[in-house]
């Protein structure tokens, strides 16, 4: 099984991705690290503890960064994920689970060092914790098996951002951290809007989860109502995009995706802050700033139907 650390800002689709990891037999979930993003860090950490307790997920929770590396936090997107980060359904009890005493970046370092070459980091929020871990202990880059992120919008087929015309939310939430993570010597694969905007979960799918997916499915139906309303109104779709679970799906079955290789960067200032760029390896450019950066993977195609079937069947 893939040993996974799940770095997350729960978050409606984060909660769904966590359940996907928890239920899938090919995954061994080592721990959950929380980050600012869809709500403030107190809320995302509370939600992670609640989800772990409610669904009997034994993996520990470690509390992560309150703020991005280099800038004040912008307002949390309550209109997308609700004031409580869980679609305004709220936890049904106050969790008695408490986070590990170590901050998330330290917990990540210790866990990677305990399983050298074996850990996959699945990061589906702003990348602050991963960047802090790299800053504290750069050698972990060589000890991590893979980094799979949900984040970015690489312009495939004209795909733009979702918080600005240029930027996707997770990268916009800490562009400096993203740039550090992209350019470190560990293998990164980005599952960005280029593919997640092609994976649409319909209301009929959610109803099927509710009726046939046990407690998990009923919970996903409940917390997704607010999220689906947001997406239906804004994008005129019946349902919502499957962002964070698409990154999980990549870990389980990379053959669901078509991947383009090349170094990648995030824009850290200015009007395009949070934009993500890749210089494809198979194109010729004059020598320049990109030389010597590690070649990373960007998902540019997805078999959405097979991905959704995989998700639904897990529940
Ligand atoms: C990403 O931003 C958050 O709203 C979601 O949880 C997902 O990780 C999509 O841009
Ligand atoms: Ca997320």
What does this structure look like?
The chain has twelve helices and twelve strands. With 315 residues, it is an alpha/beta fold. α2 links the parallel β2 (27-34) and β3. α1 (12-23) packs antiparallel against α10 (214-235), α1 packs parallel to α11 and α9 runs antiparallel to α10 (214-235). Residues 9, 11, 14, 37-38, 124-125, 244 line the site of calcium ion. Keywords: Glycosidase, Hydrolase. One of its GO terms (biological process) is purine nucleoside catabolic process. Residues 4-308 form the Inosine/uridine-preferring nucleoside hydrolase domain. GO terms for molecular function: purine nucleosidase activity.
Quick overview:
By secondary structure, this protein is α/β, with parallel strands linked by helices.
């Amino acid at each position: 099984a893939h040993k996974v650390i799940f770095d997350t800002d729960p978050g409606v689709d984060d909660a769904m991705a966590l359940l996907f990891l928890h239920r899938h037999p090919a995954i061994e979930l080592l721990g959950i690290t929380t980050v600012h993003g869809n709500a403030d860090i107190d809320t995302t950490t509370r939600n992670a503890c609640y989800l772990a307790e409610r669904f009997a997920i034994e993996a520990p929770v470690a509390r992560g960064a309150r703020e991005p590396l280099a800038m004040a936090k912008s307002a949390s997107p309550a209109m997308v994920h609700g004031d409580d980060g869980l679609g305004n359904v709220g936890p049904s009890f106050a969790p008695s689970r408490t986070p590990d005493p170590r901050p998330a970046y330290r917990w990540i370092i210790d866990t990677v060092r305990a399983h050298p070459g074996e850990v996959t980091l699945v990061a589906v929020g702003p990348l602050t914790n991963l960047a802090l871990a790299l800053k504290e202990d750069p050698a972990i880059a060589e000890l991590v098996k893979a980094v799979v992120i949900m984040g970015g919008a690489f312009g495939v087929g004209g795909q733009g951002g979702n918080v600005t015309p240029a930027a996707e939310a997770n990268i916009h939430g800490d562009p400096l951290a993203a740039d550090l993570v992209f350019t470190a010597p560990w293998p990164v694969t980005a599952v960005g809007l280029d593919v997640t905007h092609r994976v649409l979960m319909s209301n009929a799918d959610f109803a099927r989860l509710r009726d046939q997916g046990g407690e998990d499915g009923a919970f996903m139906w409940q917390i997704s109502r607010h999220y689906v309303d947001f997406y239906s109104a804004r994008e005129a779709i019946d349902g919502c995009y499957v962002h964070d679970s698409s990154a999980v799906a990549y870990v389980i079955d990379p053959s669901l995706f078509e991947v383009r290789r090349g170094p990648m960067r995030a824009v850290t200032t200015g009007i395009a802050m949070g934009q993500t760029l890749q210089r494809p390896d198979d194109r010729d450019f004059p020598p320049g700033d990109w030389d010597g950066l590690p070649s990373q993977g960007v998902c540019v195609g997805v078999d959405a139907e097979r991905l959704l079937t995989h998700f639904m069947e897990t529940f």
